[in-house]
Design brief:
This protein has eleven helices and two strands. The protein is mainly α.
Length: 291
């Protein structure tokens, strides 16, 4: 994965912004053409007795939407690049057509997750602010976020296959299974992680069954030797798994500490990973609760 501040990532963000603006402009132009064809001589009255040319009012509204979208994209890139909240307040509330609002949310998530970057608590707050300001429904936003995160994880484990040998992949798959089983319960939210296990084992059913046997017969964790950057990512991902159901009990806490020690991370290094993950998941759960 390219570094988050690299020219490649900056170019990717610029591309995402451009694509969003072009899509929004296309939707607005289509709406304008439809409006003009259906109401060629329309006028509007705000209640003061005066009448205004409806086409001019429409043009004014379109300009407001375009300005609003430009501001949102600018702040999103600032937030993604600086890992801090934008200096300006979120744009004012502006009810958008559903297709336009969805395009904006897709672009935001794309900007925030380029290069495999994980969504952070500030990102979730900003996405929520924009969703509320534009009038888009929370379930729609949640679906966009979940899909983006799914694609990130899938890409990560595809990369792992090209970098690790079979023994390392088996060890990582075992750690994933152990994380899912850490609280001795299987939550629906954890199903997507099972797919990652199969992905690591190249969908070999015998290997999957071997992982299940190992987990059933051994309380200890396998020793997995990974490059430092991959070990840090796996530790972060395993932390996310045990917290994905909104709970973090003593068994899960003990498991994460054991994993940290297995990767050679001291207490300080573990906290550096655990705290941001926990914070982001808490914010996500509060802003985008599961039905």
């Amino acid at each position: 994965m390219p570094p988050l501040g690299s020219p490649e990532i900056e170019k990717g963000r610029a591309t995402a912004v451009k694509a969003c603006k072009e899509q929004v402009n296309g939707l607005l132009e289509t709406g304008k053409e439809l409006f003009v064809s259906v109401f060629p001589i329309a006028s509007v009255s705000p209640g003061s007795g005066k009448k205004f040319d409806a086409h001019q009012v429409f043009e004014y509204k379109v300009r407001r939407i375009k300005t609003w979208v430009n501001q949102v994209m600018h702040d999103a890139v600032t937030l993604a690049a600086a890992a801090a909240a934008p200096s300006e307040l979120p744009p004012q509330e502006l009810k958008l057509p559903k297709a336009v609002a969805e395009s904006v949310v897709h672009a935001l998530v794309r900007i925030f997750t380029l290069g495999g970057r994980d969504l952070r608590d500030n990102d979730y707050y900003y996405i929520s602010d924009i969703a509320n300001a534009s009038g888009i429904d929370t379930p729609v936003v949640s679906k966009v976020i979940e899909q983006a995160q799914y694609e990130i994880r899938k890409a990560f484990f595809t990369d792992l296959l090209s970098e690790l040998d079979k023994e390392q992949c088996f060890g990582c798959a075992t750690l994933l299974m152990k994380a899912i089983q850490a609280d001795e319960a299987f939550a629906p939210a954890e199903f997507k992680y099972v797919e990652n296990i199969a992905q690591l084992l190249e969908n070999d059913q015998s290997a999957i069954e071997a992982v299940e046997r190992y987990c059933g017969e051994n309380d200890s964790l396998p020793r997995v030797f990974l490059p430092d950057d991959l070990a840090a990512y796996m530790f972060k991902y395993l932390t996310e798994i045990v917290m994905c159901d909104g709970e973090y009990d003593a068994r899960e806490s003990a498991f994460i500490k054991d994993v940290g020690r297995a990767f050679g991370f001291d207490h300080h290094r573990q906290d550096e990973v655990i705290q941001p993950v926990a914070s982001a998941l808490m914010v996500k759960a509060a802003l985008f609760p599961k039905p």
